[in-house]
Amino acid sequence: MTFKHDTRPRLPLSDQQLLRYHRQISLKGVDIDGQAQLAAAHVLVVGLGGLGCAAAQYLALAGVGRLSLVDGDRVELTNLQRQVLHEAARLGQPKVHSAAAAISRLNPDCQVSAMAAMATADNLTDWLAEVDLVLDCTDNRASRNLINAACHGARVPLISGAAIRLEGQVSVFTWGAGEPCYACLSRLFGDQELSCVEAGVLAPVVGLVGSLQAMEALKLLLRLGQPLSGRLLLIDGLTGQFETLALPRHPGCPCCGQAPAAA
Ligand SMILES: [Zn+2]
Q1: What was the pLDDT predicted at 191?
Q2: Which terms does the record give in the GO molecular function aspect (predicted)?
Q3: Which of 16-20, 120-124, 139-143 has the lowest mean pLDDT?
Q4: Cα–chain-centroid distance for residue 210?
Q5: What is the pLDDT, as a whole number, of residue 263?
Q6: How far is the centre of ligand 1, averaged over its atoms, from the C-alpha of 146 (Å)?
Q7: Averaged over 6-28, what is the pLDDT?
Q8: Mean pLDDT computed over 69-74
Q9: Per residue in 162-217, pLDDT tens?
């Protein structure tokens, strides 16, 4: 897999940065070179709710050099139970501005771009030309299918997460030969769609799923371990069980199948 960060200039890390990221640099497979790769990386986070807040804070702390944040919503009181980058003083502000302010305090090294807009096919096309990978942290199937189609078209890796009640799921789409896309998975859900507005969600569940999305992103950027591509991780908080299922490509998938539907 090639990333745009491979061809961006890599600046030497300062003494402060070597110390700040020491616990990560000392990991086998990261080292100073890996940390410099993260500093050159640019990640798009779509959705700054529970998943996006958790994922973005770890990407920023881990030293990802550039984050672009996209969300059209504003901070509401009901968000504060689980969306860790927002706070009462920023109620009513666009979520991306609230999250950008919090991230800049967590790690001033991280360059944050905030776009207070809903993702559309057009604006995604522009953003995907710039970024190394995308985290889908949205909460509805229409947005997820839109992001999936855009990432599939641009061949930009996509890390998808979802959380509801005490349940979560994570998968990674890297567009290798024979690999599935998000639409291969979402077709299994039928027409039923619950949101955490109706069904509720326990605060740490979004933190868990968002953290796993951040981990998969760092693994891809560093080419570390085995990504969750072609697999679906299911989390059941009620029983404390994690399960990984094979996720096959569906030949009739409207996005990645042999006869894609007209756009
Ligand atoms: Zn598909």
Answers
A1: 62
A2: nucleotidyltransferase activity
A3: 139-143
A4: 7
A5: 44
A6: 12
A7: 94
A8: 98
A9: 999 999 999 999 999 999 999 999 887 766 666 777 789 999 999 999 999 999 99
Q: Where are the domains of the chain?
A: 13-246
**DSSP bridge pairs for 163:** 168
CA 163 – ligand 1 centroid, Å? 21
Distance 181 CA to ligand 1 centre (A): 4
User: What distance in angstroms lies between residue 160's CA and the mean position of ligand 1's atoms?
Assistant: 14
Instruction: Give CA–CA dist 254/263, Å, rounded.
Output: 10
